[in-house]
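FAQ: What does the model actually see?

It sees only this:
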Amino acid sequence: MSKELRKDILKRLKRVVIKVGSGVISDHESGRAPMERGLSQKRIRSYARRIRAIIDSGYEVILVSSGAVMAGRERLNLQRPNLDIPEKQACAAIGQSSLIRSYERWFEKQDLKVAQILLGHDDLENRKRYLNARHTMEALLEYGVIPIVNENDTVTVDEIKIGDNDTLSANVACMAEAQLLILLSDVEGLYTADPSKAGNKSAPAELISHVDRVTPEIERIAGKSKNPLAVGGMYTKVLAAKKTMSFGIPTIIINGLKGENLKKVFAGSNIGTLFWSGETKIKDRKHWIAHTLKPAGSIKVDGGAGKALVERGKSLLAAGVVNVDGKFEFGAAVRILDEKGKEIARGLVNYNSRDLDQIKGLKTADVRSLVGANFYEEVIHRDDLVLV
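And it is asked to produce this:
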């Protein structure tokens, strides 16, 4: 069944996002420890040839590439594992130029032009900037240029980071309305257990070929990466796939250390792990609310309000609000929790946290009397609310 699904994906495929991790383009052949490795020119050259073949087959390609900090570490000879924020930013600044220069060098030999796009969380969170980034990518692809996307690590800190390039690639795939996301990893895909600990013959680790829904169990077995070069791990890849699936985009995780695997994907081979349910996608703006914006706080609602949101598609009114947590302003994204504290939705709130704390539990008429000119009938309108 998985092989048939893959062939169906290829039939409608026009645009693909390929995410290349640091572990994939690091210089494994050097024999050095992972933290001491730099960029592998041989591997980047190989992928330039393979992407040329993909484009020649009629597909548009967007690359999301890690490797800036790794390249900067090598150039600055900073090999210790724990760098402070200014050191990481310095590595990113010097390494990003090395990274894009390497891509430009080898892609030019394949008669391909590349363009650098550096994104931060603000670019994704601000709707106008989000759409501007989308239009830039569209223009580049129209001119036959390959966008190479990375997070702008020179100016971001943990509090405002997108997080990792698995998450970034999922955001880019949704932003660009791609039909496929390919995550190049240093393992074959998602296993039923950690293959490095597969000493138990009664329950060996098996590769999962197809995931049609990302359940808590799937998230649990994803585990964490043991590669010191990687920011994320299999867990972040699974979360990225969860995000793209809700937008109607399939994701495939394959071993990027085996260059021929990329060709096999486009041949419809049953390799790696395919995440795909075939379900109808969430509308673009609601997907942006649910998966791109970082919640600034949370709102707990009573049982009646929770039922109205989930079962009847209603807006959230002040009368149903039980508790307000966090500090946020008008228009911020917030999590909506049921009586047991389980997240049931996300939305854009029409009140700041101070005002909402004052009007929680009140009927609409009482809210109108209390807030006057700043009155909104809905705390969160159903058009700005997404069930999760």
